[in-house]
Specification:
Elements: E1 2-6, H1 13-22, E2 26-30, H2 41-47, E3 53-56, H3 65-85, E4 90-94, H4 125-144, E5 148-151, E6 155-157, H5 159-171, E7 186-188
Helix pairs in contact: 3-4
């Protein structure tokens, strides 16, 4: 099996790549840290040749809304078009709970507990890009009749994240709730 991973040098991508390689799976990495931009359709398509699966993890999350939308939406559209146009059998897209529009202090929830029917109402560029990408994945799956799995991950933490949070709580106990509360929505990464 041959897998293309976009964002393979990122926080999650690095670990996914290592696990796949440990299991004898051939991995083709595609990361901006290597000068490979998912907005470069031709290069992305060339490197996806003969892959069986795409795991799309690449995303921009910074203070530049234009860069976020370009990288996340145009980049994801490139990935989806390649998936549609080739013999790649499956695609996994890493979305985010941010697509709901209520994380990182973006807005208050309409109701709790948050369930599968919770209506998304994103406003910020990152959350809007993730929600837009989910809708594009749904549309493309209907067009190409191949499986696309969208994972709406909560915060993903490691030991460094816990250390930072513990230090912040010791310095300021209200850190648990201020500037925002994340509903206890996180996963441990190994």
């Amino acid at each position: 099996m041959k897998v293309l991973i976009t964002g393979n040098k990122g926080f999650v991508g690095d670990r996914v790549e290592k696990k796949l390689i440990q299991n004898g799976i051939e991995v083709i990495g595609f990361d901006i840290k290597d000068g490979l931009d998912i907005c470069d359709y031709r290069k992305l398509k060339d490197l996806s040749f003969d892959c069986d699966v795409i795991i799309h993890l690449a995303a921009a999350d910074n203070d530049n809304p234009t860069e976020i939308m370009k990288s996340n939406v145009v980049g994801t559209m490139n990935v989806l078009n390649i998936f549609k146009e080739t013999n790649i059998k499956k695609m996994i897209f890493m979305s985010s709970v941010d697509s709901l529009g209520i994380f990182q202090g973006e807005d208050k929830p309409l109701y709790l507990p948050i369930d599968d029917d919770y209506p998304c109402h994103p406003k910020k560029a990152y959350s809007l890009s993730k929600y837009t990408n989910e809708m594009m994945c749904r549309n493309y799956q209907k067009q190409c009749d191949k499986p696309i799995m969208c994972l709406r991950a909560p915060g993903i933490w490691d030991e460094k994240t816990y250390g930072k949070i513990e230090n912040c709580r010791q310095e300021r106990p209200s850190f648990e709730w201020d500037p925002y509360w994340e509903y206890g929505a996180f996963l441990d990464i190994i």
